[in-house]
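Task 17 of the worksheet. Students: predict the tertiary structure of the chain below and write it out as structure tokens. Keep your answer in the requested format; marks are given for formatting as well as content.
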Amino acid sequence: MSTTTRPVIQTLTHEPGIGWSAPLPTELDSERTLVVAFGAPRVDGAPGPIREVRGAFPNAHLIGCSTAGEISGTRLLDDSVSVGVIRFNHTDLVSIDAPVRGREDSERAGAFLAEQLNRPGLRAVLVLSDGLNVNGSALVRGLTGALPEGVVTTGGLAGDGPNFGKTWVIRNGQPEAGFVSAVGLYGDRVRVGYGSKGGWDVFGPERVVTRSEESVLYELDGKPALPLYKHYLGEVAKDLPASALRFPLALRRDREDENSFVRTILSVDEGTQSMTFAGDIPEGHLAQFMRASFERLIGGAAESALMTRANTASDEACLAILVSCVGRRLVLGERTEEELERAAEVLPEGSSQMGFYSYGEISPFASGGCDLHNQTMTLTTITEG
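Model answer:
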């Protein structure tokens, strides 16, 4: 193996009717190789490309999931598989998975993964989860609660386009629903950067969450939440829950808290006049409705890339894993690739960019702990120094 400190990085794509954009680089296979693969939801019924990846890298650590769109460089694709390969020279890897059969399993699954990965030298954890059978907030809480302070945790929730029907992660080299998987990176040479920004505009007053239960919101300012939300949505309220992807909710602990986080609605319940979100809605938090601004969304992608450079203090070429929310794609439409281009412009020269559109993003804040985010562009950059 090369003695240089720079890892070998390559990205490639499999498209129907075209095949692989380049031969699978089997020479990069090793126990210190990380392979990341994001695929269209239908891939679980025709997993040929995933099997080919596993066959090409039998000794590597393979992680991946289904998407709401695959990212390959600055291109947005559907019905494809986007692959990133990085062979380290000094970084050790450990991969693990856990079942998550229901939302109540989420914190337990996160804690199990953390306990298995918590070994000497742990620097970062990349985690990918089933996007539907999970409470993302509880998953992150379980992970971070059992990991040492300073370990960077990033990743995302698998997608199923705009359908919210079935998602999968790669387990034992095959797409499988109902699991969460993670890879731990170990050693003092690995450099992992992170950044997460939204770019949404808030509107209307901040309201207090007066009644909620985990990810279910019942009341704001003592009033049923769903009618209030419909009032702000106006004509598009008839298209709920799909239209909710364009109008997420911003939350923060109190008026002094500078770290607001975003939540996306997954479903509504007319009987209880409630809304279920992708993560927890804590009682007592302040909530404010949000809507899209094209330029601010696209600018948020550049800010996220800038954050990764700031917190790694490295100008080395890297593998950049982009996790952007399906709601951003629905809002940006034909302009979606602009946010990919803006991120690429900021990354160090020679970096390789890939990723997916998700049902939730996992990243630390600019300051403070890690959390589940919605409607953000989140970047994870990986290299060695």
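Marker's comment: Helices lie at 48-56, 106-117, 136-145, 225-233, 294-312, 326-332, 336-346. The two ends are 17 Å apart (CA to CA).
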